[in-house]
Amino acid sequence: MPAGVDAVPGTTPWATSTADLYRVDTAFLGVPDVRVQDWSLRVHGMVGRELELRYEDLLAGPLLERWITLTCVSNQVGGELAGNVRWLGVALADVLRRVVPDAGADALLARSTDGFTTLTPLADVLDGRDALLAVGMNGEPLPREHGFPVRMVVPGIYGFASACKWVTEIEVTRFDSARAYWTDRGWARRAPVKTASRIDTPRSFARVPAGVVPVAGVAWAQHRGIRAVEVRVDGGGWQRAELLPAVSVDTWCQWVWRWDAAPGQHTLQVRAVDGTGAVQTGEVAEPFPDGASGYDTLVLTVV
Ligand SMILES: Nc1nc2c(c(=O)[nH]1)N[C@H]1C(S)=C(S)[C@@H](COP(=O)(O)O)O[C@H]1N2
Ligand SMILES: [Mo]
Question: Taking every annotated instance into account, which residue ranges of this chain make up the domain Oxidoreductase molybdopterin-binding (predicted)?
Fold first, then answer.
């Protein structure tokens, strides 16, 4: 964990404990129970040569340990379907280099024991980001709920399009021919994480004493990073917040803005600027089909 985080009471903890990480499972027959000795991963499709990996092959490494913030496309603006976890795993790009993808391939179709599938851009996995075949989280083997024994984690892409749990098969394929669980239900075929920011404290409808009020929260734009966070009061000018440390462009960032609050009812809004300089859009969109957008907005009373 970087020094200097968790400095403002009421902000989401920088590190998400395994117990606190949100869960999304489509399997209605309970959480898959996969035994290590029965598990293997077949990497095939548009490749020079197929590969089958056993659990011991992954443990033989090299293993990388990386903080990566995972987010769900179903998250509403201001919502809680996001968490920052220390993942342990093998670089997916290394595995793909061993199978030698065909020049015409542009997608990975990952399949889970429960029939769930994800469709991920091949170029993103190969561009140097820390896409992982993860075997551990937060210093322990993956718990069953989060995909034991092995799952994918790809920074910058929503979970439904990258984070296949209980993964047993990866097919190198093409976007124009492949179909996946959520794309069959109308969700986006390409799903980069949208820049998002959230006010954690004060809470909505809070009553706070006049004077200096720390307004704080988190912001994320995985694999682009957060360059700035800005807050505005009652639709006024955007004011720069202070950013707390982030480990990399793949993790969220806590922020705080010290507000000299005058009595009355006020509306606060937050927006982030990502590492490319792009400002988070205020255009309101629902999560379907490719992620929510708009400013997190808080109404409170200063007394
Ligand atoms: N096999 C399987 N993998 C899955 C899912 C699922 O339902 N089944 N849900 C996906 C979605 S929508 C998200 S956001 C992430 C959530 O991972 P978590 O449940 O470990 O937080 O896993 C992804 N991987
Ligand atoms: Mo999700």
Answer: 30-178
pLDDT class for 42, splitting at 50, 70, 90?
A: very high
For residue 179, count other CB atoms closer than 10 A to its CB.
13
Residue 83 Cα, ligand 1 centroid: separation in angstroms? 13
Q: Is pLDDT of 29 > 80?
A: no
Same fold, 18-185 and 196-302: no
Residues 122, 108: Cα–Cα separation, whole Å: 6
Q: How far is the CA of 177 from the centre of ligand 1 (A)?
A: 23
Report the length, in residues, of the chain.
303
- Separation of 164 CA from ligand 1 center, angstroms? 6
pLDDT for res 6:
98
Residue 217, judged by CB atoms within 10 A of its CB (0-12, 13-18, 19+), counts as buried
Say if ligand 1 is within 6 A of residue 25 CB. Answer: yes
Provide the residue ranges of all domains of the chain, joining segments of one domain with +. 18-185, 196-302
Is residue 56 within a helix (H) or strand (E), and if so which, with residue range? helix 55-59
72 lines ligand 1 (CB under 6 A): yes
Closest residue to atom 16 of ligand 1, CA basis: 24
196-302 maps to which CATH number?
2.60.40.650
- pLDDT value of residue 296: 98
Beta pairing partners, 298: 268
* Ligand 1 neighbour 5 (Cβ under 6 A): no
pLDDT band at 27 (very low <50, low <70, confident <90, very high): confident
Query: Average pLDDT, whole number, for the chain?
Result: 97
Contact call for residues 121 and 162 (beta carbons, < 8 A)? no
CB count, 10 Å around CB of 214? 17
- Say whether domain 18-185 belongs to CATH 3.90.420.10: yes
